Structure formats: C-alpha cells, structure tokens
From TrEMBL:
Keywords: Signal. It holds the Pfam family Peripla_BP_4. InterPro entries: Peripla_BP_I (IPR028082), SBP_2_dom (IPR025997). Transmembrane segments: none annotated. It is found in: Cell envelope. This is Xylitol-binding protein.
Length: 355
C-alpha cells in the first residue's frame, strides 16, 4: 500500500509540473520587473520631467501586459551618497538600475557590484566609463558644439562672449565644455571674456551673470546651457543693455516666453533652443527592459569615448523663425513654463538597437 501511495504522489507531482509548463503566454508574463532609479540631483525641473517620463513608459508597459515596479532613490547627494543609493537598490534585489550619475568614474566600482549581482545597469543623460554599464544619452559634446557653432555664426564669427556652465565636474558638463572648445577652434575671433558656473539653476545663473555684466558690459554673446536660460534673460532685462547680446538659449516654455517678450523691445534679439530631452530616462527604461529580457545589442551600436554608449537623437530645436509657432503649439497643449521640448524612444526604436 505504501508503494501505491508513493506512486500516486509522484503522479500528482508530474501533473502539477505539466500544468506549470502549460502556462499561457499571458500567465508567463506575470513576473514583475523591479527597476531601480538612482537620481543624485533634484535641483532642476529637467530631473522632475525625466522621472515623469519614466513613469509614463512604465504605464505603457503595464497596459501592454508587462508588470514594472519602480524603486526610486532620488535626492541631492554627492558621489558617496549616490554610491549608497545604488547599494540600496542592489540590496533591494532589483532586476535593473537606471542611473543619472554624479561622476564620470566615481560610480564604476558600485556599478560593477550591481552587474556582478546579475543586475542590468543603464546610465542616462551623461556618460560614465564603467565597462559593465550601457549609457543611453544624447551626444552632449556634439550638443554643446552645435550651440556654440550657432552662437559664433550669429555673431558673424567675431565678438566677446561669456560662457555660463552647469555643475563643475558633472559628466555632461565636462562633455559640454569639450564641445564648446571643439567649436571655438574654428572661430579664432570669438573671445571668451569670462566663464562661470550657474549649476543648472536659474537663480544662480541670474546672479552670476548680473555680477559679470556689472564689470563687463560690452558683451556680444552669451553661451548658456539648459536649465539656466531664464536666469540669464532676467539678468539681461534688469541690466537694460543698449543692444541685447545674442544668447544660445534653451527649449523651455518659460524661456521661449521671455524670448518673445524681449523681441518686443529688442526686435533684433536672437536666440536658439536645442532640446536636451528629459525623455532620455524613459529611453533608458526601454533599453534596460530589453537587456533584462535577455536581448543582445547589435554589433556597432555602442559608441562614444568609452565604447559603451547608445546615442539617441536630439528631438527638437527652435530658432527665431520657428519661435512663434513652437511656443503657440506648446501653450495649446497647456505645457507649463518648466516644460522642455522632449522626446523618447518608442519600443520599436529601442528594439532596433538589438539583434
């Protein structure tokens, strides 16, 4: 009798195993993918929009039947603080981590710890040298070169300019400084009078430029990165210059409003906005999900100084000829002043990077 009962028990186990193997595709997708986010700087609207874009794509996945849960570590921290953020996510046993980094090299060891634990790591917005991470970013160096090229051409290849940079030492800022230098090699008659850091903060940029204008009023052009343009314009408005300098501005709604207002008093004022898309975070989510699901990147996809970067397209630009229509379209969509022109990879576009 005991042998008979044992045989019946084994048969039941076999049937249960067969039932598991017979799960429908929908049931097989019931796994929840846990994605950690390490965001080490929260002092700009850009970062808020980045996180909102990631959440939007999470909802797209859910509607398509793929469960995604975010575990977010977001605070103003130094490099050591961001290392702790990432270790918290490793300990939480997430499947993938998206990092917007505070250092080009300082996170390499903790990124290695994550990938050694079987976690896929994607770095967005800025490039790090970690060989086990995949960067997903626009080409920040080319972005800055484009903007400085525009400024130099708008000045006819000569003049005195001021450069307002972001946060010293951040990977994107360093890449942008290199892009500025790339451009200026071609314009020997452009003289940089002063370089200062505005820390991607409108208020600080306004303060910094106000001090420069007080001592150096004869400025022909101003190079500013995104996240500081409105502060730059407010400093210029307060200074009431005889002629408004040319400004390489930004693609924010609030900036475009001020740009339009200034043209009423200074019809010859010129500016330019080149989008640095916060949606790169959402693009990074699509890439990390593909990696988690075992997909392999195509040969030749990874580029950049460390050969570990997927460069995504710059989605938009605006100049004096397109300002009115662009702003009208954004206001019709009820976009806030803090909104910057954006875009992120569709699933089909993300899949195109993979075999």
């Amino acid at each position: 009798m005991k042998l008979k009962h044992l045989a019946l028990g084994l048969s039941a186990l076999a049937l249960a195993g067969a039932a598991l193997l017979a799960l429908s595709p929908a049931q097989a997708q019931a796994k929840t993918y846990r994605i950690g986010i390490s965001n080490g700087f929260v002092g700009s609207e850009w970062r808020t929009q980045m996180l909102d874009g990631i959440r939007e794509v999470v909802e797209e996945y859910k509607k398509a039947g793929t469960n995604v849960e975010l575990v977010i570590q977001s605070a103003d921290v130094d490099v050591q603080g961001q290392i702790q953020q990432i270790r918290n996510l490793i300990n939480a046993k997430v499947d993938g981590i998206i990092i917007n980094p505070n250092s080009q090299t300082g996170l390499n060891q903790v990124i290695r710890e994550a990938t050694d634990a079987g976690i896929k790591v994607v770095v967005v917005d800025q490039e790090v040298s970690a060989p086990t991470a995949v960067n997903v970013a626009i080409d920040q160096r080319a972005w800055a070169k484009d903007k400085m090229d525009w400024l130099a051409k708008a000045l006819g290849g000569k003049g005195n300019v001021v450069v307002i940079n972001g946060i010293d030492g951040h990977p994107a800022n360093e890449a942008r400084e290199a892009g500025i230098a790339d451009s200026l090699k071609n314009y020997p008659n452009i003289k940089v009078l002063n370089t200062a850091n505005g820390d991607w903060d409108h208020a600080k940029a306004q303060q910094v430029l106000s001090s420069i204008l007080a001592s150096q009023p004869n400025i022909d052009g101003i190079f500013t990165q995104d996240g500081m343009g409105q502060g730059v314009l407010r400093a210029l408005i307060a200074a009431k210059p005889r002629k408004m300098p040319v400004v390489s501005g930004e693609a924010y709604v609030g900036y475009m409003k001020l740009w339009s207002e200034i043209k009423k008093s200074y019809p010859d004022f010129r500016s330019y906005g080149l989008a640095n898309p916060p949606g790169v975070g959402a693009s990074g989510l699509r890439v990390v999900m593909n990696l988690i699901q075992g997909k392999q990147l195509k040969d030749g996809v990874l580029k950049g100084p460390y050969n570990n970067t997927i460069y995504v397209p710059i989605p938009a630009r605006v100049d004096d000829s397109t300002l009115a229509k662009t702003l009208a379209d954004l206001l019709a969509k009820k976009k806030a002043d803090t909104y910057t022109m954006d875009g992120y990879l569709t699933q089909a576009q993300a899949n195109a990077y993979f075999k």
